[in-house]
Amino acid sequence: MLSLGEIAPDFTLADQDGKNHMLSDYRGRWVLLYFYPKDNTPGCTKEACMIRDAFPRFEGVHARVFGISVDSVKSHKKFADEYQLPFSLLADEQKEVVGKYGVWGEKKMMGRTYMGTKRTSFLIDPNGVIKKIYENVKPEVHAEEVLADLQSFNA
Question: Which of 54, 78, 79, 109 has a Cα-to-Cα distance from 66 of 20 to 30 A?
Fold first, then answer.
């Protein structure tokens, strides 16, 4: 896992429309990278919709939002269209970025152990530095939590 104060590892991934995004292209802006397990699952849908509903406030503080999972571009497109998500979902099918950020690992659910993406977010400042790491994110409150932190960092 990465640490506060580190420069966020750069990457290039395609979004739901097939457009490539390179993290370093967003220097000069706050960036929320939120890693989530899977498109169209209850917790991930709740998290995406809460961010969607708060999205104008993210834009108001010039913050860019990227959701990242190991799902395909096609899966992201369906998910984004179904829930009218106004931000980019990035496809990390090769699991490179989840590896760089230390969010791919062993998980347990209903007595079963498996490998998957841990629900973790990184708030990156305009200089590319990790300012806050959110582990074990609670989907229903995450957007408000991040917006409160953005407000305090920008104060």
Answer: 109
Q: How far apart are CA 131 and CA 150, in angstroms?
A: 10
pLDDT tens track of the chain, all 155 residues? 789 999 999 999 999 999 999 999 999 999 999 999 999 998 899 999 999 999 999 999 999 999 999 999 999 999 999 999 999 999 999 999 999 999 999 988 888 998 999 999 999 999 999 999 999 999 999 999 999 999 999 75
Q: How many CA atoms lie within 13 A of 54 on its CB side?
A: 22
Inter-residue contact 2 to 131 (CB < 8 Å): no
Which domains are delineated in the chain? 12-154 (3.40.30.10)
> What does the DSSP 8-state code read for residue 9?
P
